[in-house]
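In the laboratory, one determines a bound structure by crystallizing the protein with its ligand and collecting diffraction data. In a computational setting the workflow is compressed into a single prediction: the sequence and the ligand go in, and a structural description comes out. We illustrate the idea with magnesium ion.
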Amino acid sequence: MASLGEFDFIGQFLKSQAAQGQPFFDSPLALGIGDDAALIPPLPAGEQMVMATDMLVEGRHYRSDVDPVALGHKVLAVNLSDLAAMGARPVAFTLAAAMRSLESDWLNAFLKGLFALARTAQCPLIGGDTVGLASNAPQSFTVTVIGAVPQGKALLRSGLHVGNDVWVSGSLGDAAYAVSRCVPDAKLDWPNPRLALGHRLQGLATAAIDISDGLSAELRHLLVESCARQSSTLGATIDWQMIPLGPSLREAVEAETITADRARVFAATGGDEYELLFAAPPSVREQIAAIGIDLSLALTRIGHVTHDPAMPCGIRWSDSQGQPIRAELAAECAQGGFDHFKS
Ligand code: ADP
Ligand code: MG
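The predicted complex, in structure-token form:
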């Protein structure tokens, strides 16, 4: 396999492809790869800038034998998912790559996945950094994405209110179920950032977050931020049976490979889903249902926000009769969530 130099990589691979199909560069004020820094044209009046960074580290977030096309897609997708969760639209991104070597076949594949999503999302690569690593060091790819949202309209974690419905997009649990069986999975390898949904939720949702660490953990983040910002004692009640199971989990339950309860624990705690978890007042239920139909995306109401002084920031998991689910199951759900420094 041909090995490249850093400047061949930047000049022949990155610069030549980054601007293709990107209206960003129509502006005479835009400047991409090649100078000391990129230039971003001013945002339209009334918009504020949004920024997010997420890194993927070999051995930590992905296996060394990962399909490079999927990896290129995923490193941008997880960042766009953060923009989606803010209700923001993408503007541009940078890529910091730390690699042991520059192999053209692998890089071509990686950039194929990266640029395909960049073009669909209308989010051009405008710069970055490239570092060579020692032969035993883990590789990493870090994307910083820039977005825009109408001033004051961003969907924050801290906006939960008593009486809000809790909603989730798509279905959950398949990515974690695939990891547990060491098999590939469309959800795990090709996450689809819910940008259109995030955008449509502006002005309807009171709070939103993307599900990277599992429903249970992300809902707790919403509760903690909302309790802190409003000095209130909020809680959430989630209807266990309403949590939408991914297609492989549904199949496995039907084939009796796993029990329905086990499948729901996967759905309640499994990460790497990149669906949106959001809250909205009951008065906009019909509007949200209409958005789901428009986008051909399942939007499921799984519970509601309560005033819960007995269990501040707590989640109560109930069955469809409103009774608490078995204590062991609830305990498993509460343990969900990944902490890099505690695991
Ligand atoms: P500097 O020494 O000023 O950091 P570099 O040689 O690192 O310059 O980068 C040269 C140009 O190539 C810059 O415009 C930089 O943004 C771009 N670049 C370098 N690495 C990447 C990368 N991985 N992805 C996108 N652009 C990159
Ligand atoms: Mg540099």
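The mean pLDDT is 95. Keep in mind that any predicted model is a hypothesis to be tested, not a measurement.
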